[in-house]
Design a protein that fits this description.
The chain is mostly helical. The protein has helices at residues 2-23, 30-34, 49-59, 62-75, 78-96; strands spanning 109-110, 113-114. The protein is built from five helices and two strands, in the order H-H-H-H-H-E-E. A two-stranded antiparallel ribbon has the order 1-2. The longest helix is centred in the first third of the chain and has 22 residues, at 2-23.
């Protein structure tokens, strides 16, 4: 199931690359240069777990990325379209690597499981196709 979900996220990431290639007037180098910028939202954790989780989750919510993109299209603002594409691509990339939305308990606690070098091993889920 994890492989299937990762393939879905990869398809969404490739959709963002295609959107950038077809709708952005910016140079190709700007896409990878800005791809990690949404992670600056981790600075919210300086104000504590609750604020950090809220800020991080807001920036990493795919619905927010889509709204930013649509606002950019409606207002004909290339930079806003680009921002929506980057948010969308970044979120998909994060999910591929196992970084999910954060619980308010700690940064390491995500909807995809615990992250980090001391992450608890989760019980193997049954294969949906067996």
């Amino acid at each position: 199931m994890k492989t299937l979900l990762n393939l879905e996220e990869l398809a969404l990431f490739l959709l963002a690359v295609l959107a950038f290639a077809s709708q952005s007037p910016y140079g190709w180098w700007l896409f990878p240069a800005c791809l990690l910028l949404p992670d600056l939202s981790m600075l919210g954790y300086a104000a504590g777990n609750k604020v950090g989780a809220w800020v991080y989750n807001f920036v990493h919510h795919r619905g927010v990325a889509i709204l930013v993109y649509l606002a950019g299209r409606y207002l004909a603002l290339d930079w806003l379209v680009f921002t929506g594409i980057i948010l969308f691509a970044h979120t998909s990339m994060d999910r591929i690597f196992g970084y999910g939305l954060k619980y308010m308990t700690a940064f390491k606690d995500t909807h995809l499981g615990e992250i980090g070098p001391n992450a608890k091993q989760h019980r193997k889920q049954p294969d949906a196709y067996n």
